[in-house]
Task: inverse folding
């Protein structure tokens, strides 16, 4: 499957792109959002990505469009990467379609390839974690980042198997996990290895810490009335985005309607959030693009604080 931008119409709507604006596609990937943003107004787009393959795609787009610039780096470093405050930032979290579709990158349990999962293609790989982490630490990774309830059973089996032969490929690991959890019962059920592969990918790339850094960086990187748009794909990401927007907009729910929270009069709120609920893809979009099923979009508008 080629790269299909998720919730594209909603991203363009919530960014509210104007002529002359500068928008940051902080997870450039295959460039789907960037091309749509460039076509929506006479604006400038800065793409950011840590994946060398994405940078190559960005370099080609730079040659095609003088209003686009690609920067190599992690989106958590936006404050250091961006030369000036901008009018909008979009974060499309998780793994890109082209990363999943390239077996040699090791992100997918649907294709055999090296057990890698490194977005920057440097540092520790998934194979390094699977083959070296103590059993308890490995179980904690699977539970914390994959919300895998049977993490201890999976970790025990992995450690038992790696003593005979180290894990090198995606299908090898997926088969061991499937042996612990059993095959999926219905065609629409997620593959048994889904949560474990998600956990390893998040750990390898330190994704949640990068998200936290990017959310905080947006406060300094956005102009007043600038938009921060965040598209998430699982509960760990969405929970962080939801909490961030609520805390930074003063939308902290009361513990009880009989005991309302007294907000400090000097509290600074950096965002206003017109929509309390997250946007989700339509049924038509999920039918056309199954990878959009779990997507949620949240956004905020920077105040002049």
Result:
């Amino acid at each position: 499957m080629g790269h299909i931008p998720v919730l594209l119409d909603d991203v363009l709507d919530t960014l509210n792109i104007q002529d002359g604006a500068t928008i940051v596609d902080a997870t450039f990937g295959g460039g789907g959002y960037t091309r749509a943003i460039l076509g929506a107004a006479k604006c400038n787009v800065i793409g950011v990505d840590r994946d060398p393959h994405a940078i190559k795609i960005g370099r080609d787009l730079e040659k095609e469009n003088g209003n686009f610039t690609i920067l190599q780096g992690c989106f958590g470093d936006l404050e250091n990467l961006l030369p000036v405050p901008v009018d909008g930032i979009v974060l499309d979290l998780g793994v890109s379609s082209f990363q999943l579709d390239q077996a040699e990158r090791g992100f997918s349990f649907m294709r055999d390839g090296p057990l890698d999962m490194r977005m920057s293609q440097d540092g520790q790989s998934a194979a390094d974690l699977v083959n070296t982490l103590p059993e308890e630490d490995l179980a904690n990774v699977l539970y914390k980042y994959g919300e895998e309830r049977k993490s201890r059973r999976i970790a025990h089996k992995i450690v038992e198997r790696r003593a005979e032969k180290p894990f090198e490929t995606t299908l090898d690991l997926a088969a061991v996990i499937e042996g612990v959890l059993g095959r999926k019962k219905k065609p629409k059920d997620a593959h048994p290895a889904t949560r474990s592969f998600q956990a390893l990918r998040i750990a390898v790339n330190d994704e949640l810490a990068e998200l936290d850094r990017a959310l905080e960086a947006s406060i300094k990187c956005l102009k007043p009335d600038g938009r921060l748009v965040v598209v998430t794909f699982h509960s760990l990401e969405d929970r962080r985005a939801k909490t961030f927007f609520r805390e930074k907009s003063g939308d902290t729910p009361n513990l009880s309607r009989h005991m309302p929270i007294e907000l400090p009069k000097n509290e600074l709120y950096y965002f206003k959030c017109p929509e309390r609920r997250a946007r989700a893809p339509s049924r038509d979009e999920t039918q056309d693009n199954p990878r959009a099923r779990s997507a949620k979009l949240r956004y905020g508008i920077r105040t002049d604080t």
